[in-house]
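Sanity check

After download, print the first record. It should look like this:
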Amino acid sequence: MSPAPETQKPQVNGTGGKDKREAARMEAYTKHWAEDSAKDDASRTESRLASYANLVNGYYDGATILYEYGWGSSFHFCRYYKGEPFFQAIARHEHYLSAQIGLKPGMRVLDVGCGIGGPAREIARFSGCDIVGINNNGNQVDIANRYTAKAGMSDQVTFVKGDFMNLVSQFGENSFDAIYAIEATCHAPTWEGVYGEMKKVLKPGGVMGIYEWCMTDSYDKSIPAHKEVAHGIELGDGIAEMRTIKQARQALKTVGMEILVDEDLAERPDEIRWYYPLEGNLFKCQRLWDMVMVWRMTWIGKNMSQKALEGLEYLGLVPKGTGEVSQSLQVAQVALVKGGQKKLFTPMMLFVARKPEN
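Expected structure tokens:
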């Protein structure tokens, strides 16, 4: 039986207090990139990396409510078995990571880049561990805490605002039994920086698991069509710079982690591919409810949603800039499907790595 999805109404402000979204950074979001991928040069990349926190927050200030509407409370991709409902597959992907890390009751675990807490709540239920989620977007932290309180899990799962490039200053060294990150550390300005911080707050002998967004070994940035895919993923998903599997692997080695698992799960021979919901093909849906979700990805669904959003923005019911972020998500949809079909990109490069005992 499929697990019941979290179906809370998408929250603009999870606490009922001051809205922490900032219209200025939302409106400025798309200006971080040149519209033409061929003109998006190294200087622009360096500028984005230098202002990564503002860039990522501008993206998620606008995208969070759209993600909830289109995807639920777990903002990540997953593998699918034939006939498997969407939300069951999402939960299974989270359970698999939990099992790979060896999470169990009594462990204190850090979720790096926790979104609105969907994976943390699911993994806590599955494993029995205690989880602390960290996120640099105040609006998402508020929503995560609200949903967790509603689920009656606030004693087991908590969320705090913070920068994953400065974990030690917030938590101290050797603070967690295990760490995971689900499609989040791609937002970091450097993998060495974020992986290094994760290692420091992990106890000696502890394990961390990562689902990483990477360009694959087939990617060649000198090929315009390849660069266009990477550019679309960056612009559409709030990522300053897309990097390769090889770079992620080397970053883990550079900071001194012992790699235990190194596998691109997108390479498994699944009949139903990870990007199928984005294709907008209703004939590929696994279950009836999935048709509602996939319909939103069709040309008609996207246009109706965009028009409705522009109307809400005009009426002042959502911040100015939300519509523009929505358009960037449509750019991402095209780029992600192309990247998946041509095997240039993976959202599920799995690394499991151990911190040495000494």
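If your output differs, re-run the checksum step. Summary of this record's structure: Strands lie at 108-112, 130-135, 157-161, 176-182, 202-215, 258-264, 345-354.
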